[in-house]
Specification:
352 residues, mainly alpha, Four Helix Bundle (Hemerythrin (Met), subunit A), 9 helices, 72% helix
Length: 352
């Protein structure tokens, strides 16, 4: 990250935040799709089969009651009314049986237990329908005793078994719905957990990226400010850390430092930090010829006493070089002499 520019750092950080948001969305879509499949299994498959089985039970139960009323009826109109009710209930049973057979014929949304339960229902149905027809025929013929015996000894137990096997299928669908409901609830709980965890992770990632990016900008600026403040106070040993390839590391202070290090006498690290004698001697006040330069021993008269010219030629030369040149007196300009020759001046004499 240190070698990336500020723009690229912001771009990478934004990309990571967007990717975390995409991960949250993807996890949410997967979990919601799973919950939708489970709810579809409950509502579009198991509930439909259970509804048809409940219709079976209602039809068989009411037909058993109507068949009893046929035996108890004493007149032909009474028998006819109950028979018509039985036929209507049989038609209702058939209306639910046809779509149930289509579902089981497909086989994609049916278990082996469901197939066995439906097969048991059909087996008992094949036994119950002929017995019901015999009871109705005996009642129409006026044989009340025979119809009652047929109903009591055979039809009642068969209809009871028919209701039992139908209840088996209803209970089976109910248990399957409960299992799918538990799975859907657990999926919803995990969905909340996953989304919460990913949201927290995305928030933390955004905070870390923002903090790192802002720190990579503000920290070099603060260090540069400290170095410049120290240099302004006279501390030339401070150095700007110009590592990295971002805009802050390659700013004007860093370029100035590299320019200084590249100049003759900059001395690299010694020139910046002032650690070598060459760097120390390069200061303005220590250069020979500078107005503030003091040669060795210039501030100690005792060192000059007893020394001949041979022992201190550098000091004398220095004072000679430091003596300010005499100022030329500027007088009124005189006209040039004929021939363009300048007048000759001698000591104590004016121009001739």
């Amino acid at each position: 990250m240190q070698n990336l520019t500020i723009g690229r750092r912001i771009g990478v950080g934004s990309l990571l935040v967007v990717l975390s948001m995409v991960a949250v969305v993807v996890v949410g879509i997967v979990q919601v799709d799973k919950i939708d499949d489970e709810l579809s299994t409950i509502n579009d498959q198991n509930a439909v089969k259970q509804r048809y089985a409940i219709n079976f039970r209602g039809s068989v139960h009411d037909r058993a009651i109507a068949l009893r009323d046929v035996v108890l009826a004493t007149t032909d109109p009474g028998v006819r009314v109950e028979v018509e009710l039985i036929e209507k209930l049989a038609a209702d049973y058939a209306a639910s049986e046809a779509p149930m057979d289509e579902i089981f014929a497909d086989g994609t949304a049916v278990t082996a237990e469901e197939k066995k339960a439906l097969a048991d229902i059909k087996a008992v149905q094949e036994k119950a329908l002929p017995l019901a027809e015999k009871v109705i025929d005996l009642a129409r013929a006026g044989d009340q005793a025979g119809a009652q015996a047929m109903l009591t000894l055979q039809a009642t137990s068969v209809f009871t078994e028919w209701l039992r096997v139908i209840n088996v299928l209803i209970d089976l669908e109910e248990s399957m719905n409960q299992e799918v409901t538990v799975s859907a609830r657990s999926t919803a709980d995990r969905f909340v957990l996953y989304i919460g965890a990913l949201a927290v992770l995305a928030a933390l990632l955004a905070l870390v990226i923002g903090w790192r990016t802002s720190r990579s900008i503000t920290r070099p600026l603060a260090e540069t400010q400290d170095v410049l403040a120290a240099v302004a106070e006279g501390d030339l040993t401070r150095r700007i850390d110009a590592r990295g390839r971002n805009e802050v590391r390659h700013g004007p202070p860093a370029r100035a430092q590299r320019h200084h290090r590249g100049r003759p006498g900059g001395g690299g690290r010694q020139g910046v930090r002032g650690g070598g004698q060459r760097g120390q001697g390069a200061r303005a006040g220590d250069r020979p010829g500078h107005r503030g330069h003091r040669p060795p021993g210039a501030g100690d008269p005792g060192r000059l006493r007893g020394c001949g010219r041979r022992d201190r030629p550098d000091l004398l030369d220095h004072h000679l070089h430091q003596r300010p040149p005499p100022r030329a007196r500027r007088g009124p300009r005189r006209p040039a002499h004929a021939g363009g020759r300048l007048p000759v001046l001698t000591a104590g004499q004016g121009p001739r």
